[in-house]
Amino acid sequence: MKNKLFAPAIVLMNRLNFTRKFIVLGLIYFVAIAVVVYGLYASLNQVARTSQRQLEGLELIKPISRAVQFMQQHCGLSTGVLGGNEAMRSAIDTKEIEIAAAFDLIAQQLPAGLILSEDWTRLKADWNSLRKDWPHWTADRSCTLHTDLVDRMLVFEAHIADDYALTFGSDIDAFYLIDTIINKMPQALERLGQIRALGTGILAKKQISAPQQFEMGVLIAELRHELNFLVINLEKTGRFNPQIQSPLSAATKDIVDSMNQVIDLVSSDIISGHFVTSSEDYFKTVTAVIDKGYRQMAQLLLPKAEALITTRVQHTENNLHLYLGIAVLLLLVVPYFFIGIYYAMVGSMRSLIRSARVFASGDMDECIDLGTRDELREVGDSFNEMVDGFNALLAVRLEDKIIETRLRSIIDASPISMVVSDDRQNITFLNPAFIQTFGYALEDIPTLADWWSKAAGSDPEYRKSMAASWQGMVVHSDSQFNPVEFSIQCRSGSTKTVLANASLVEQASGAVCLVALYDITWRKQAEADLRIAAIAFDIQEAMMVTDASQVILKVNQAFTRITGYSAEEAVGNTPALLKSGHQDAKFYQTMWESLARDGYWQSEIWNRRKCGEIYPERITITAVTNAEGKATNYIATFDDISKYKKAEETIHDLVFYDSLTKLPNRRLLLERLRHSIEVERREGKQLAVMMLDLDRFKVINDSLGYVAGDELLQQVAARIASRLRKVDLVARVRKVDLLAHLGGDEFIMLLEDITHTEDAARVAEHIRSYALTAG
Fold first, then answer.
1. pLDDT at 481 over 50
2. Of 149, 339, 577, 714, which sits most exposed with the smallest number of CB within 10 A?
3. Residue 756 gets which letter from DSSP?
4. Among candidates 143, 97, 99, which has minimal Cα distance to 124?
5. How many C-beta neighbours within 10 Å does residue 71 have?
6. What is the pLDDT of residues 156-210, one digit of tens each?
7. Backbone angles phi, psi at 692, to 5 degrees
């Protein structure tokens, strides 16, 4: 297999001398180093260019943020003027001048492609239109159009962030910080700006309508939502970069506290209808909070982001210089050693060639000393051993008969199967161990060809392969230091795996080959069994092996994954390590009785992980017994079935309960009603079924929205349930009108075990008056 894999390289190298071999290797090395260096340079240079572009993007974000801030202030001022506070009109002209200057600054910094883009052109046109027309609008319309324009400015800012790769940072701390600057902080400040504008108009009129109350409540909820994400982002930034954690924590607390003060002011003075604060004071108070947020972004968040990106650029450039320096150093060092290896090998080879020629000329005293410690030294030592061997053969000649007699007696007495063949591939002798193991006698296989026609089976390719291996051993004695392993078909038809080793014995009449065949069939089977057992032990299910005293001996990786205990923590303990306390003593008594009776036990059980979490598992315990039937080990396999349990609970809730009110649905009501009717008929009791229908519920959905309708249904469901007994049942039953629209305004109540009809009537009147009182 190795020869086939490296055949092209072997063929090429065999055709080249050492000089050309090293030239080829040197060229390959230089090309590889050049490719690696170029790839490294391109990668690091790309990081540096991207980071530089991100810095340019941050510079462009600054004037856009200022424009958004001024437009939010313009929104609040115009809403106050349209609400009746003319004192705020003078500040609007100043604010429009600031917005125009911010737009000019943005245009100066925008690249040519974005200046001519449709988004930027529309933003400028819409602002000019809004600046001219707002005095002719209502306060609500002015607030809506301002909000729309600010939202589109924020979208434009996000597009610029994408174009300048600000949203694709590789450093996690910079990513969360930039996301806060681009998305989280502007969104929170925009919600606060809308609260400022809406509240200024309300305080100017000193009155608030129901829709305005609802809108203000929605804005406060959205602001709290944005604040939560803002805090999460800044906390993550600080966690991944402890150096800036302290200033970010202080800034986060300052922003959250200021915005919560605004929320408290709106709740206590505007939504409640007190109107103690004047529109000017309210505008100034909220503006101060918003301006503080923009200051934090301009003076803290943006500089920190720029510092992180600048540090990344410096780090990348330093790495680029370092890696290029290392590459150049390697480029110089490796050729130096290449040249040294070349001269060392050529010198050793020339010394070997010279000594071989001297030996061939008849000088048996020739000896080689290369002075190296590599493989060539082993070649030289082998040459010296060959010389010593030849000298020994010349000095001592043993009689062939004595050698043959001694060899035959050793082979006959050996328990190892042995074959002797001559140099013409004739098998001259088989020892008794061979005949007993394989069933063939000498007359059955007089030659190697006969042997392979009988022993290698019916597969011609396998016969050809094994014959070649045998030929190498018998004729060339190739396997004297490298035994060959193959399969042999016995005369009985069974197959055995053998390990064959060959050696040559020189005699005056010629050399004979002695081949020893070691039967390793049992060892191969044992190895296969061990591989199967190892694979089976590392299945996806957790596995735990204990001794008879329940001491854990071994666990697999699935055990660690499910329980959290490592093998070192589990081994030596007992399974009580996982005990949750959910099963009583009777449960375990039943388990041990089943193990003693059947040899195995299977059930579901609650166990405890290392972290303390209790989880369900499906477990099977099998007892391993000895010859006397006594348990020596216990093997437990189990799997975490938490997902299946949760899925069963979710399916049950979806089938039998209403997703909005969490009350039983039509299916569960019908099942409970059928059961109650059977019980009442059997025991002679009474039951009552009542339906509560919410009048004009569609009007609520159409006027206040489906969110308000859903909240009403939840409150009514809670009120009804609180006034019924535990044995009673209340269900929400969805109905379908003629237009196939789902309703949801019907509640069915089932009262069991009542004494008088009047009792049901009183319960119905009590529930109707209590459940439908809006409060």
1. no
2. 339
3. -
4. 99
5. 25
6. 888 888 888 777 666 787 778 888 888 888 888 888 888 888 888 888 888 888 8
7. -110, 120
Distance between CA atoms of residues 563 and 606, nearest Å: 12
Q: Which residues of 580-608 are buried (b: 16+ CB within 10 A; e: fewer)?
A: eeeeeeeeeeebeebbeeeeebeeebebb
Provide the CATH topology of domain 538-647: Beta-Lactamase (3.30.450)
Common-topology check for domains 538-647 and 657-771: no
pLDDT grade, residue 740 (50/70/90)?
very low
**How far, in Å, CA of 540 to CA of 632, rounded?**
25
In this predicted structure, the answer to whether residue 398 has a pLDDT above a threshold of 50 is no
Kindly give, in sequence order, each residue whose CB lies less than 8 Å from that of residue 415, ignoring residues fewer than 6 positions away. 433
Q: Which residues contact 512 (CB under 8 A, 6 or more apart)?
A: 420, 421, 422, 423, 428, 504, 505
Measured between alpha carbons, how far is 73 from 79 in angstroms, rounded to an integer? 10
The answer, yes or no, to whether residue 401 has pLDDT greater than 60, is no
Answer yes or no: are the C-beta atoms of 226 and 273 closer than 8 Å. no
Give the Cα separation of 252 and 665 in Å (integer): 46
Return d(Cα 764, Cα 750) in angstroms, integer: 11
Q: What are residue 65's phi and psi, to 5 degrees?
A: -65, -40
Helix (H, G, I), strand (E, B) or coil at 694: coil
Q: Identity (one letter) of the amino acid at 640?
A: D
Q: Which two tokens stand for residue 720?
A: 């009804």
Give the H or E element holding residue 67.
helix 18-82
Residue in 209, 140, 225, 217 with CA at minimum distance from that of residue 711: 217
Higher pLDDT, 480 or 679: 679
Strand partners, 707: none
Mean pLDDT confidence for 648-661: 77
Alpha helices for 538-613 (secondary structure H): 557-563, 567-570, 585-598
Measured distance CA(310)–CA(468) in Å, rounded:
69
Separation CA 527–CA 485 (nearest Å): 15
58: nearest Cα among 312, 316, 317, 319? 312
Q: How many helices (H) and strands (E) does the chain have?
A: 27, 13
Distant-in-sequence, close-in-space partners of 203: CB < 8 Å, separation ≥ 6: 80, 83, 270, 275, 277, 278, 279, 282
Tokens coding 326: 């290392």
CATH number, span 400-519: 3.30.450.20
- The Cα 349–Cα 121 span in angstroms is 81
Specify the pLDDT at position 551.
92
Please state whether 500 falls in left (phi above 0), alpha (psi between -120 and 50) or beta: beta
Give whole-number Cα distances, 590 to 438, 586, 595, in Å.
55, 6, 9
Distance CA 311, CA 96 (A): 38
Secondary structure of 471-500 in HEC code, one letter for each residue: HHHHCCCHHHCCCEEEEEECCCCCEEEEEE
Dihedral angle sign, alpha carbons of residues 476, 479, 480, 482: positive
The residue count of the chain comes to 775
Question: pLDDT class for 742, splitting at 50, 70, 90?
Answer: very low
Percent of residues in the chain assigned helix, strand, coil, to nearest 5? 65, 15, 20
Mind giving me the DSSP string for 35-50? HHHHHHHHHHHHHHHH
Amino acid, single-letter form, for residue 427: I
User: Domain ranges in the chain?
Assistant: 43-323, 364-396, 400-519, 538-647, 657-771
> Which residue type is seen at 325?
G
Q: How is residue 708 written in tokens?
A: 């308000």
